[in-house]
Write a structure and sequence with these properties.
The complex is a heterodimer of chains A (99) and B (269). Chain A is α+β, with helices and mostly antiparallel strands and 99 residues long. Chain A contains three helices and five strands; from the N terminus they run E-E-E-E-H-H-H-E. Chain A has a three-stranded antiparallel β-sheet. Chain B has two domains: 9-119, no CATH class; 123-267, Phosphoenolpyruvate Carboxykinase, domain 3 (Alpha-Beta Complex). The chains are: A alpha+beta (99), B alpha+beta (269).
Chain lengths: 99, 269
């Protein structure tokens, strides 16, 4: 099973409001609010840390959930955000120039 | 750009403390604006934004046409079916080409104000606003949400700032709401006064009256839907986003479910 890597695209603005991340696409002004778990994943999306490791550190430990279930949920989330065009998702680490 | 127009006229329209001087060779046009912006007209400022209006025959397209606002070669270019305009933020000079009716210059002023406010941490928002007991409140929503209705229901101790477009500026650690001449269905300008903002109410019409505090992330998302921003400019969009987040962290935001009944004002203290 290949690792997945995630990184926010460059043309977004994001800010933590209470425990939720609010994300705005500066290209088309669409606004997204991420729940507490999605916010934890988003905040750790540096392009270099594998998604599975992010989930293990930021979700499984913090929220005491089953590792595989959490990973599958996270995968579904990042695929959705990638389809929305606000997150890069790749099978390899994502460098600075790609974001 | 002429400084004084012989045989023409000039007025200064001051909204939110920001004067915009409007000059035109067409004295009747200036006269019409003096009536429209009564209460917001001052002596022309020595410095500040100055727009020269060239009044032309009515253009083919109307005010419902799509608005285009873009920044090119140091100037904001604004274009709609019923006007062409440009404004240079460095020199503060601009010009407008439009027919002799007020809606076009109204739109140009809103655009210029929104651009200036975006840089200063403020915004224009689709919202009624009013002052009660020295504090200002916003009632925000899209067309049909009830901005004019709640304005009509206001008791005598309430001073209306607008029933359509509110003017919000960052002042110190908080925000202040200013009256505007931009009227909705109420058909009259707001009072030209201001007060510190004490709350934003997002309007929802219902069968009872209730105000519920909403979560910051939801508040930002819903506030952004109602902020007027016209420019296709990524850096300004980012600034407006930041402003909305700052606003929500400093001003309480509620969802106000209300029925068309003056008792709703019992919740606004």
């Amino acid at each position: 099973m290949s690792e997945k890597y995630i990184k926010p695209i460059r043309d977004i603005a994001a800010r933590m409001m209470a425990d939720e991340m609010v994300v705005m696409s500066v290209k088309d002004s669409r606004v997204f609010s991420l729940n507490v778990i999605a916010s934890a994943i988003w905040s750790a999306a540096d392009g270099f840390t594998p998604l599975r490791e992010i989930v293990a550190r930021k979700v499984v430990t913090e929220f005491e959930v089953d590792a595989e279930v959490a990973y599958q949920d996270a995968l579904e989330l990042v695929e959705e955000l990638a389809q929305e065009g606000i997150l890069l998702l790749a099978d390899h680490p994502i460098g600075q120039e790609s974001a | 750009m002429p400084g004084v127009i012989e045989g023409g006229g000039q007025i200064s329209v001051v909204i939110g403390g920001l004067p915009i001087d409007i000059q035109s060779a067409d004295r009747d046009f200036i006269g019409m604006l003096e009536k429209r912006y009564t209460g917001f007209v001052a002596e022309p400022a020595k410095a500040g934004i100055r727009l020269h209006v060239e009044v032309v025959a009515p253009m083919d397209d109307g005010e419902d046409d799509e608005l285009e606002v873009r920044y090119t070669d140091g100037r904001w270019m604004m274009k709609r079916g019923d006007f062409h305009a440009q404004w240079n933020p460095a020199s503060n000079l601009g010009c407008v080409r439009q027919a002799a009716y007020p809606y076009a210059i109204d739109a140009v002023m809103r655009i210029v104000h929104s651009l200036v406010l975006a840089k200063r941490g403020g915004f224009l928002v689709h919202s009624a606003s009013a002052i009660r007991n020295g504090r200002a409140f916003l009632f925000s929503g899209v067309s049909g949400a009830g901005k004019t209705t709640i304005s009509r229901l206001a008791p005598p101790d309430v001073t209306l700032l607008t029933d359509e477009i509110s003017y919000v500026r960052r002042v110190g650690e908080g925000y202040r709401a200013y009256g505007t001449p931009f009227a909705g269905d109420l058909g009259r300008a707001g009072e030209n006064i201001s007060a510190p903002l004490a709350g934003l109410y997002l309007l929802v019409q219902g069968r009872h009256n209730r105000a519920s505090r909403i979560e910051p992330a939801d508040a930002v998302r819903r506030l952004l839907r109602n902020i007027l921003f016209f420019a296709d400019d990524a850096s300004l969009v980012e600034q407006v986003f930041g402003t909305a987040c700052e606003f929500v962290s400093r001003v309480p935001v509620y969802e106000l479910t209300f029925q068309p009944d003056e008792k709703v004002w019992g919740l606004i203290e």
